[in-house]
Amino acid sequence: MSRVLRGKPWSKDGSDHEDEKEGDSECGQRLGFALCQKLARRSSRDREGRSRTRDFGRVHSHRMQAKEVIRKLLTVWKGSIARCPQSNGKMRDYRLRESGEQRLRISPPARLRILIYGINYSPELTGVGKYTGEMAAWLAARGHEIRVITAPPYYPAWKVREDYRGKWYRTELPKVPGAPTVYRTPLYVPREPSGARRMLHLFSFMVGSIPVMMKQHSWKPDLIWTVEPTFFGAPLALLLARTTQAASWLHVQDFEVDAAFDLGLLPSNGRVQSFALRLERVFTDAFSRVSSISGKMVERSLAKGVSPIQSRLFPNWVDVDVIRPQAAGSQNSFRRELGLEGKIILLYSGNMGAKQGLELLVPLAAAFEDDPRVHFLFCGEGSFRSMFEGMVAHRPNVTLIDIQPMERLNDLLNAADIHLLPQRPGAADLVMPSKLTGMLSSGRPVVAIAEPGTQVAHVVGGSDALDIDPCGLVVQAHDPTELQKAARCLIDSPTLRSKFGAAARRYAVRHLGREQVLARFEQELLSLIREPEPVIQVN
User: Fold this and answer.
1) Sorting pLDDT into bands at 50, 70 and 90, what band is 426?
2) Which residues form the Glycosyltransferase subfamily 4-like N-terminal domain (predicted)?
3) CA 181 to CA 175: how far, in whole Å?
4) Which of 103, 249, 403, 470 could, after both became Cys, cross-link 289 (CB 3.0–4.6 A)?
5) Are 225 and 112 in contact (CB under 8 A)?
6) What is the pTM of this model?
7) Which domains does the chain have, with CATH numbers?
8) 243-279 pLDDT tens trace
9) Phi and psi of 398, rounded to 5°?
């Protein structure tokens, strides 16, 4: 027969006591509270530590009795004391481990030690690196101590930047007090990231980061935050979390394993795919939290076996004060520089990779080649760019430009009359295009290629169930005629463009603002570290 202790005193004979009068030194004090007293009071002079543990139980007056309580805890419950780290010299964080992996903690201070582990980071201007860098800077500005283990910047050009070459390991100390400390580790970057080379590229980052990750053991982070891609780093992050008793968080920007098979980057061998998915589930289940960037991707995580307790929604964001609609009639620098003033511009801006489906836009550009009002502008870099350039090189109504610095992003997005968001079939709920946040915040309509029922279709096409007004038009990838009709509908109707653009801006302000998204995320971090007192089973 097992007995559940829910905060009541316990005695040798196993009977429950009523609340005892103050001053009573019987062994009927709560075991967890007496143990907290033992850990928080290393000496009789530690008055401050004793006052901080008052909320967790009455402080025992006899040191020997505290030792006896600890001995009983170890022998009767067969638990183990994991560790008692000092939390920034202010409060001790006691964690009790037993077979059920439950923890008992004293509330930590608001300032957390957070280790961010991911292959992409600032100064990359697009994709995962942009968001991870902004998140780290925001958390550091909030007073948290941040360390980042990442690779040299190489994306989306798939080439390591010149100023980061020639040194395998590199440490970037904060230039201003409180900024993140960044550790760069070596990795293999293929010129043409085919399936096998891409896997080797991701695996090489994990191998190169091993020594730097192990050095963080003495730092004792409160949280290890890992971003997918790459999932190869998950075992290493979990190992460090287990050995330091840190909480662990996996953030899924792309379902890397699914995308590798569904997009043909890896051969769909039944046994190999089954083994990879099984391995993915084992490691995913071990994280304290698993988040993703859209509701549909969270649903996919749940379908993979992630528990609702673990699962969180952590969407990408946009600084709605920086990316905003420009006043009507204002001159746009890109239109002026490119000689496109007065044109109706259809813009694609972002990574030019295999999963973006840029080849779907080539027939669209061809369909409007004889329309002098219309011009197509493509901006970005990536593994597919050189091939795409060859596809549109002879089109007079197409212009390609390189990726632009952040200070010009708002001008670029406002150069568009219509944003284009292509996606290859099968990728819609495996990846959520990060570029969509800026499109919406700029207050311009979107023509998206997406399957019905996907998150992109809900956001762009509108959803009564989710109370989302349409921000543009959605078509399916297998129907180029419908894509041309959707584009022509918006080209011919300034009123409809204005209506969809206003709805896009409203959605961005309500749901994607950087401050509100990151503030909610910070509260989730604090609630994870401050877990409630567990119910302890005694056999």
Assistant:
1) low
2) 126-317
3) 9
4) 249
5) no
6) 0.76
7) 3-107+530-538 (no CATH), 113-313 (3.40.50.2000), 333-512 (3.40.50.2000)
8) 999 999 999 998 888 877 776 666 677 788 888 888 8
9) -125, 135
